[in-house]
Amino acid sequence: MIIDQSTREAMESKKSACLLEHEKKTKSAYQDILQRLPDTLQRFTLLNSEKGASIWLTTLPLQSCGYYLNKEAFRDALCMRYGWRIPNMAAVCVCGSMNTMNHALICPRGGFVIKRHNEIRDLEAELLDEVCTSVQKEPMLQSLTGEAVRGNQADGARLDVSAVGFWRPSERMFA
After folding, report:
1. Cα–Cα distance between 17 and 38 in angstroms, integer?
2. In Å, what is the CA distance from 48 to each residue of 24, 35, 103?
3. So what's the pLDDT on residue 68?
4. Per-residue model confidence (pLDDT) at position 117
């Protein structure tokens, strides 16, 4: 069957018009559904609809690159993505507040903030251990005897990492 150029252009034009109409109806239905959702679910839906928000679901699970999620981590990631309660998560945080997902992400005492901090501290100590000696995690600071310093002045205050030989041989460095 031979189709002349004008017929082909008419068919392409009609096809484009149908696709645009379908896209318009789909967007309208999406907005309709979105308006009926509670505010928190609307926020999760909008965040999950952003470009690149689902890329972690299609990433190859290369354990050597750290792109591997075990069953529990995958389930927890899905719960976080959709705002569901994570199973086996403590109901009350160590600070005494209700342990919601938002609270766990921002609480400096018992949430994920301290876990992220500890991962960075451990990595820093691991790297320092390759080039320095006597690397210690969270060494205790000496008690103050009248000195004026900024920061934590309480007895038992700690730093993240200390190491010997970073700046000069036999000199202790604190980070």
Report:
1. 34
2. 21, 16, 20
3. 77
4. 83
Query: Residue 164 forms beta bridges with which residues?
Result: 133, 172
Predicted local confidence at residue 29, as pLDDT: 93
Longest dimension (CA), the chain: 97
Q: Using one digit for the tens of pLDDT, what is the confidence trace for 87-110?
A: 888 888 888 888 888 888 888 877
Identity of the highest mean pLDDT range in 26-40, 80-94, 99-113? 26-40
136, 161 in Cβ contact below 8 A? Answer: yes
The first and second tokens of residue 132, run together, are 């320095």
What's the burial of 171, exposed, middle or buried (CB within 10 Å: 0-12/13-18/19+)? exposed
Distance CA 45, CA 47 (A): 6
Residue-wise DSSP of the chain: ----HHHHHHHHHHHHHHHHHHHHHHHHHHHHHHHHS-HHHHHHHHHHHSTTTTHHHHS---GGGT----HHHHHHHHHHHHTPPPTT--SB-TTSSB--HHHHHH-TTTSHHHHHHHHHHHHHHHHHHHH-EEEEESPBPPPPSS---SS--STT-B-SEEEESSSSTT-EEE-
pLDDT in tens, 152-169: 777 777 888 989 999 988
